[in-house]
Write a structure and sequence with these properties.
Helix 1 packs across helix 4. The protein has two domains: 49 residues, Homeodomain-like (Arc Repressor Mutant, subunit A); 142 residues, Tetracycline Repressor, domain 2, CATH 1.10.357. It contains nine helices and two strands, in the order ββααααααααα. It is 75% helix and 2% strand. By secondary structure, it is an all-alpha fold.
């Protein structure tokens, strides 16, 4: 049932994001989320059987669904353009949802079931969306024949370290670069590498 264009599920997700951000995963209760959403606690369980399901009901739209929407707009971009808009967008997503990101990263370390769900419902679906673009560029002869899954893990690893330092660990003193400088450097290194000429071409 919709209320002013917002479905009950959307109200629950919005309320859960607020409560999770304020209280953390362990501190948040479904009764408090229900009060915030203006629904009965039992209504939450009709949509999300467990608190864990609710957390990822919040995370999926932020991480996966938002990426799927953007990829449709970026599909014709060159690899350099694509990677730059991708990283800018992901950095913005992290900044706008920093408390949720902290919960996903930190709580997953202490709850194996959360780690598994984080991988299967957030990380892997997002990576799969990106693999399609990489594979298409490879088939066009633009990118080298490297397994897209490996390429994406390398890219995520490069960007993820900076994101963790700057936002999740509040380590501004360790990352003294502007986001745009980081984006340009990551894309340059990812696409062109560090050598002035490829290994095997002349003397190394």
């Amino acid at each position: 049932m919709a209320d002013n264009g917002i479905t009950t599920r959307e109200k629950i997700v919005k309320a859960a994001l607020k409560v999770f951000s304020e209280k953390g995963y362990n501190g948040a209760t479904t009764s408090e989320i229900a009060r915030e959403a203006g629904v009965a606690e039992g209504t939450i369980f009709r949509y999300f059987p467990t608190k864990k399901d609710l957390l990822f009901g919040v995370a999926n739209p932020v991480v996966v669904a938002s990426l799927k929407t953007k990829l449709a707009d970026w599909k014709d971009y060159s690899p350099e353009e694509f990677l730059k808009v991708l990283l800018r967008n992901r950095f913005e997503i992290v900044k706008e949802n920093i408390e949720l990101v902290k919960i996903l990263v930190f709580e997953s370390q202490f709850h194996p079931e959360l780690k598994d769900k984080f991988l299967t419902e957030v990380i892997l679906p997002a990576a799969k969306l990106l693999q399609g673009y990489f594979k298409e560029q490879e088939q066009k002869g633009i990118l080298r024949d490297i397994d897209p899954e490996i390429s994406i893990r390398v890219l995520v690893g490069m960007a993820g370290v900076f994101v963790a330092w700057r936002y999740a660990f509040e380590g501004e003193k360790y990352v003294k670069f502007e986001d745009e400088d980081l984006v340009s450097a990551i894309v340059d290194i990812f696409l062109n590498g560090m050598l002035k000429k490829p290994v095997g071409e002349g003397d190394c």
